[in-house]
Amino acid sequence: MTAPYGREQRPVLEVVDLVKTYGEGETAVHALAGVSMTVAPGDYVAIMGSSGSGKSTLMNIVGCLDVPTSGTYRLDGVDVSELNESQLALVRNRRIGFVFQSFNLIARTSALANVELPLAYAGIKPAVRRERALAALDMVGLANRADHDPNQLSGGQQQRVAVARALVSQPALLLADEPTGNLDSRSTSDVLSILDGLNAQGRTIVLITHEDEVAAHAHRTIRLVDGVIVSDIRRRDITPVGAMA
Amino acid sequence: MSIFEIFGFALRGVSANKLRSGLTVLGILIGVAAVILLVAVGNGSAKQVEDSLAALGTNTLTVQGGRGGDTGYRTDLTLDIVKALQDRESAPDVKSVSPVVNSAQTLTFGDASYDVNAVIGTYPSYFAASNSVIASGSGFTEEDVDQAARVVVLGPTTAEELFGTTVDPVGQRIGIAGQIYSVIGVLARKGSTGFNDPDDVAIAPLPAVQRSLTGYGPVSSITVEAVNADAVAAAKAEITAILNAKMHVADGASSTPYQIRDASQLLETRTATAETFTVLLGAVAGISLVVGGIGITNIMMVSVTERTREIGIRKALGAPRRVILSQFLIEATLLSLLGGGLGVAAALIGANFEIVGIKPVIMPDSVVLALGVCVAIGLFFGSYPASRAAGLRPIDALRYE
User: Fold this and answer.
1) What is the pTM of this model?
2) pLDDT tens digit string along B204-246?
3) Which of B122, B245, B257, B302 is least enclosed by beta carbons within 10 angstroms?
4) Which residues form the MacB-like periplasmic core domain (chain B) (predicted)?
5) Can you tell me the distance from the alpha carbon of B382 to that of B331, in angstroms, rounded to the nearest whole number?
6) How far apart (Å, rounded) are the C-alpha atoms in residues B95 and B88?
7) Residue A169's closest chain B neighbor by CA?
C-alpha cells in the first residue's frame, strides 16, 4: 500500500495500521479498520470514498483533531500519539493547515484577522503577522478584500480566505476536507487552481473529495471503502520540493 | 500570544452580541449600585441619627418613670420631684429641669386638620435643653406657665402640614382637642433621624396641656440639662440620689422605678441600630449581586455553547488551552467589571438624591468592595464556562451544530 516516494526524504505523513472505533461491544462501528499509508513531501493526494467510508475520520486523525483507537501516526517524523494536548495544539498550529468544507471562518472578524489567527496563536509579532497574512491573501487573489467580514464574501472567496489561513503558517501539510463541497463550479475551479499552484510550489496537499473531477487534480488517488484502502493510484510524479517558494 | 490580543478577542466576543452583554451588564450594574447605594443609605441614616442627637445636646439627661418599683411609695414622676431636682443645693450640676407630658392629638385650623406626633407640655427651659431654636415668633415664658396660657409653639413639619406654605402660622388660632390655642412661634428645622421626625411637635406650657389634654397626673418624663457636657455624669449622680430619696429606693437595689438616659447613651443605641440596618441592607443588596453573578455564568454558558464551533476552529488552528481559557475568563470579567463600573457611576449619581428622606453617604469601602467582588464574580462565575470551553476536544467542537 505504501506509495513509492523515490527520494531520500522522510515522509511528511506516515500512518501504520490506523484503527478508529466508535462505541463498544456489538454496536461498535469501525470507522477505520487498519489504514496504512505514507505521503511524501510535495505529494498531492486525493482521498476518495463514499460517505461512511472513513475518509473524514482519517482526515481528523491526520489533522490531530481526533485520536486513533490504535495504530501509529508520524507527522514529519514525530509520533503524534505521544504528544500531550498543548503539544498537539502546537502541531496543529505549525505543521498543519486546514481547509474545511464549511469554510469555518470566524464570524464578525475580517478576512485579514482570520488569516492572521494561526500566526497570532504562534506568537508572531503583529507587524510581521500582518505582512505575512496580506501576502497569503494576495496569493489567493483577495488582497483587496482583506477588511471584509466573512459574511461580506461569496462562498468561493470565503474558501480562498480559508486557504490563505491554512497556508499562512507555512505548514508541512495542507489538509482539505471536501474543500469544494459547498462551492459552485466557478469557485471550485478557483480554489482548485490555487491548490494546484501551491502544490506546484512544492506544498504537500491531502484533500478529501467524492468528486472525480476534483480528484483528477491530485497526483495520486487513494480510495477508501469501509475503513480500508482499496486502491492507491499514482498518476503523476511528486512535485519536486526544491520548487517550494 | 500576548494578553492584549486575548483581550482583543474577548472584547470582540462581548461586543458580538450587544443586547445580551448589555442585559448581563445590567444585572451586575443593579447589584453593585444596590450594594453601594443601600449601604450609603444605611450609613446616611446612621449619620443623621448621630447629627440630630448631637444637635439635641449631649448635656441633657432624660428621666423616665413608670417602671413600677416595689418600694411601697409613690414612684410616679411628679412636679414635687421636679421641684426637688431644681434644688441648687443638692443638685449643683443641674442647669434646668423641664417636666414633659406628651400626647398625640389632632390639630385643626379652619378646615384643615393634622395628627401631630406629639403635643408636648413643658417649661420654657425645655427649648434650650432640647436644642429647639425658635425660627419665627417667640417661645412661651414662665408667666405663660403660671397662667396656664393657651399658647403653642409648632415644629416646622407640623406648621407646614397645618398651614401650608402660604399662611404665616404665628398669631393664628388653632384647635387642639377642641381647645383653642394661639400659635406664638415656629421652631427651626432639626432634620429627620429617619425613625421619627423631631420637627413634628407642638410645644405648649405644661399646665395648659395638663388642664386641657392629659390631666394633672404624673409627667411622662423629665428633661434635665446639666451645666455643661462634662457635668453630665455628676448631674446624673445627683439626680439618682434625689430620686432614690424621693422614691425610697433602697441603697444597692437591683432595679429602680425610673430610668435616666443621657444623649450619648441614646446615640449609641441609635447608632448601633443604624449599623445593623446598614448591614442588613448591604446583605440584601449582596444577594442581588450574587444573582447578577449567576447571570454571568448563564450568559457565558450560552456564549460557550453558541460559539462551540468557533472554539473548535480556534483549536484546529492551534489555539492553546490557556488562550481559550483566558479569552472566556476575560470576557466574563469584562462583563462584570463593566457592570461594576456603571453600577458605581449609577450609585454615585443616585447618592445625590434623597432616598426615603435620607441623604445617602457613600462609604469608599463599599465602592472598593463592590468592584472587588465584581472581578471576583467574573472570575468565579466565568471559570466554569471558560474551562468547559477550553476543555472541549477540537473534533467535538467542530462537529457541534
Assistant:
1) 0.65
2) 999 988 888 888 888 888 888 888 877 888 888 888 888 888 8
3) B245
4) 21-242
5) 8
6) 9
7) B317
